[in-house]
Specification:
Number of strands: 0
Radius of gyration: 20 Å
CATH superfamily: MFS general substrate transporter like domains
Shape: globular
Number of domains: 1
Order of helices and strands: HHHHHHHHHHHHHHHHH
Strand content: under 5%
CATH class: Mainly Alpha
Structural class: mainly alpha
CATH architecture: Up-down Bundle
Helix content: over 70%
């Protein structure tokens, strides 16, 4: 990446990509401690209000199908700026929402912040090789993890002091800052613009025929699916079963963010030497161990917040190790289609997460305890192990392991 800062004629500084990626992550989780309060404010069922998470994820999945190819056709810079402008307008509208339906519509439009995540991966792949891309993506994710890690903490206190709208005000401030920095620092890195948008969509069959693309994508989908299931179900468990306040939820959630940050650091430190496939397998096995530990603790009668958030830290650690490598693999199977690969892979990844988020939220009741969520997370992590095993098998056949 460029060492120059605030120069629109060079590749962006790594901190610009951190901020762009963090904006979407913040929008996804800063309001999580407010979900029970939002259900009371709008006089709506928790399952309906929880759609603010799953619809955001679903919209993110769909939008990635278009953001990636559009950036291959028109360039990374104009597409990212346009998407962030839509995100800012949607956030302003959400602050003044008077019905849950209107708020959910705003959440769909807020998903345009996905451009930060999608295009940061493509920008990295524009400039470095596959193994270095995994390392850079790991460092970018580690750097941006601080914002979503602190987001629920800050969001919990803001909710208690000023109401749920204040969390969207914080999101607006960060979104405006990200737009300004991207405008000032992001130089175009796509030097080979495609001739038409249709040609980029036509590239999807080529990607879908690549076995390694599917392996990396399914690994990323099931890995992140465990985390998204947690996002959908943990607020309910925290409030209704463990009786935590919004601020307490935010503080415990930081444990998971810390694990994720450490995983990102390990990914950035070792992926270049160990290889992306072995790093993915290691991360997935750590996540599986975390969920087994949680099931053991709750089954033994330890119904404590640390019985949920402590083992979930291993999910965060495993995800932090796995996802940078899986995403680097996604955009490296066909390097000339990096933007399209990032969009399609991200769509499948986030779409799977949205489904698991809905499932985990729907299965939980006061009588169920945390078990439906823990089993969904465990099964998703086990599926990620199998997907990684498939990638390793295909790579061994091709002589690339």
């Amino acid at each position: 990446m460029s060492g120059a800062y605030l120069n629109r004629r060079t590749a962006p500084h790594i901190t610009t990509l951190v901020l762009a990626t963090a904006t979407g992550a913040l929008a996804m989780n800063v309001f999580l401690p407010s979900l029970p309060a939002m259900a009371r404010y709008f006089d709506a069922d928790y399952a309906v209000v929880q759609l603010a998470v799953s619809l955001y994820l679903a919209a993110t999945a769909v939008l990635q199908l278009f953001i990636g190819p559009a950036s291959d056709r028109y360039g990374r810079r104009p597409v990212m700026l346009t998407c962030f402008a839509i995100f800012i307008v949607a956030t302003v509208a959400a602050i003044f929402a008077q019905s849950i339906e209107f708020l959910l519509a705003c959440r769909v439009l807020q998903a345009f912040a996905a451009a930060g995540m999608v295009l940061s991966r493509a920008i990295v792949r524009d400039t470095v090789s596959a193994d270095l891309a995994a390392s850079r993506i790991g460092y970018i994710t580690m750097g941006m993890t601080l914002v979503p890690m602190l987001g629920p903490i800050v969001g919990g206190y803001l909710d208690e002091l000023y109401g749920w709208q204040s969390t969207f005000m914080l999101t607006l401030v960060i979104g405006c800052l990200a737009f300004a920095v991207v405008y000032a620092d992001l130089g175009e890195t796509n030097r080979n613009l495609s001739k038409s948008l249709g040609a980029q969509f036509g590239a999807y069959p080529e990607l879908l025929r690549a076995r390694r693309f599917w392996g990396y994508t399914l690994t990323a989908a099931f890995t992140s699916g465990a985390f998204f299931a947690f996002l959908g179900g943990a607020p309910y468990i925290s409030s209704e079963i463990l009786h935590l306040s919004p601020s307490d939820y935010g503080l415990y959630f930081a444990i998971i963010g810390l694990g994720y940050m450490v995983g990102n650091f390990l990914s950035g430190r070792f992926s270049g030497r160990v290889g992306i496939n072995r790093m993915m397998l290691t991360g997935n096995l750590i996540a599986v161990a975390g969920m087994v530990l949680a099931l053991v603790l709750f089954s033994a009668g330890y119904a404590h917040p640390l019985s949920l958030f402590g083992p979930a830290m291993f999910t965060g650690l495993g995800n932090g190790i796995t996802l940078p490598n899986a995403n680097a693999g996604i955009v490296s199977v066909r390097p000339h289609l990096a933007g399209s690969a990032s969009g399609l892979g991200g769509a499948l990844q986030i779409g799977g997460g949205a489904i698991l988020s809905v499932i985990s939220g729907a299965l939980l009741t006061p009588d169920s305890g945390p078990y439906p969520l823990l089993w969904v997370m465990l099964l998703s992590s086990l599926a990620a192990v199998l997907a990684t095993g498939y990638v390793i098998h295909v790579a061994r056949q091709a002589g690339k392991l």
